[in-house]
């Protein structure tokens, strides 16, 4: 192995260790510590998306988008209440009314990032178990999909968008996710609904991975940024978690609104 490759591997491993350690401590502590971490990562994702879709804008405009994400998501978390959910639409609206590439993707993607941030905080409020379930679904579905795809191959899932993903790997990811849901139901006492929800969450994660890869290809870039040594950017690392957390947040609130008779 060349010294350059070894340096890349070392940076990748060290970054992974730091991310896991910081994430584990924040999840364990919960409360303000977890919320601040989520808000920070959400803002950095918005910053990356702003740079990808409006590369000709000044750095100050990209930073302004990130600060707006901090204010809107932070304000929603501090104030609380269903009405404050509207604050999550501020950043996407900013994307909609400013010149940028691929606006038809950038605007909903910005909304997905904001909803995911709110979802990750909301899950931790309910305890550690729901958050661990979400992370387990993403990790297991990704690992199962990788090995099944390598072992069985077969038809491509979406060749025009993601040439490497196969149907065998995709379905294996769903099966692995369902097993995670069943395991949490049996051993952690979570609702049985997680058994069927888990594959949907896994599918959302798979779409998140595909979408981010497509966005980078259209923009002609390899990584969303270089903020994480050896890994690229935060969108590169958390693309699957992003859409999965967004789906869970939406489902949570649909259940809540139905429970209170909103529809």
UniProtKB/TrEMBL annotation:
GO:BP terms for this protein?
CDP-diacylglycerol biosynthetic process
Membrane topology category: Multi-pass membrane protein
Give one GO molecular function term.
Answer: phosphatidate cytidylyltransferase activity
One Gene Ontology CC term in the entry: plasma membrane
Q: A single Pfam family, by name? A: CTP_transf_1
TM regions (residue ranges): 12-45, 65-97, 104-125, 131-149, 170-188, 240-259
Q: Which reaction does it catalyse?
A: a 1,2-diacyl-sn-glycero-3-phosphate + CTP + H(+) = a CDP-1,2-diacyl-sn-glycerol + diphosphate
Compartments reported by the entry: Cell membrane
Q: What is its EC number?
A: 2.7.7.41
Pathway(s) where this gene product acts? Phospholipid metabolism; CDP-diacylglycerol biosynthesis; CDP-diacylglycerol from sn-glycerol 3-phosphate: step 3/3; Lipid metabolism
UniProt enzyme class: transferase
Member of which family? Answer: Belongs to the CDS family.
Protein name as catalogued: Phosphatidate cytidylyltransferase
Q: Which organism is it from?
A: Falsigemmobacter faecalis
């Amino acid at each position: 192995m060349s010294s350059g490759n070894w340096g890349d591997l070392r940076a990748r491993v060290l970054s992974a260790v730091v991310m896991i350690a910081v994430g584990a401590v924040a999840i364990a502590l919960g409360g303000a510590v977890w919320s601040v971490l989520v808000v920070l990562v959400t803002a950095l994702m918005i910053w990356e998306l702003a740079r990808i879709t409006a590369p000709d804008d000044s750095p100050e405009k990209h930073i302004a988008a990130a600060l707006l994400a901090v204010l809107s998501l932070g304000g929603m978390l501090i104030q609380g209440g269903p009405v404050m959910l509207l604050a999550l639409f501020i950043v996407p609206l900013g994307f909609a009314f400013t010149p940028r590439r691929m606006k038809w993707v950038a605007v909903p993607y910005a909304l997905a990032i904001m909803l995911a941030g709110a979802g990750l905080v909301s899950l931790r409020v309910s305890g550690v178990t729901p958050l661990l379930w979400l992370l387990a679904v993403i990790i297991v579905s990704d690992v199962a999909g990788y090995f099944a795809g390598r072992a069985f191959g077969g038809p491509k899932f979406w060749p025009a968008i993601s040439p490497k993903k196969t149907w065998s790997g995709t379905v294996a990811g769903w099966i692995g996710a369902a097993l995670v849901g069943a395991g949490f139901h049996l051993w952690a006492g979570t609702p049985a609904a997680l058994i069927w929800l888990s594959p949907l969450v896994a599918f959302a994660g798979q779409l998140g991975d595909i979408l981010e890869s497509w966005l980078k290809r259209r923009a002609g870039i390899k990584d969303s940024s270089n903020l994480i040594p050896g890994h690229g950017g935060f969108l590169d690392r958390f693309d699957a978690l992003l859409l999965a957390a967004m789906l869970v947040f939406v489902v949570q609130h649909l259940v809540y609104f139905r429970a209170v008779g909103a529809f």
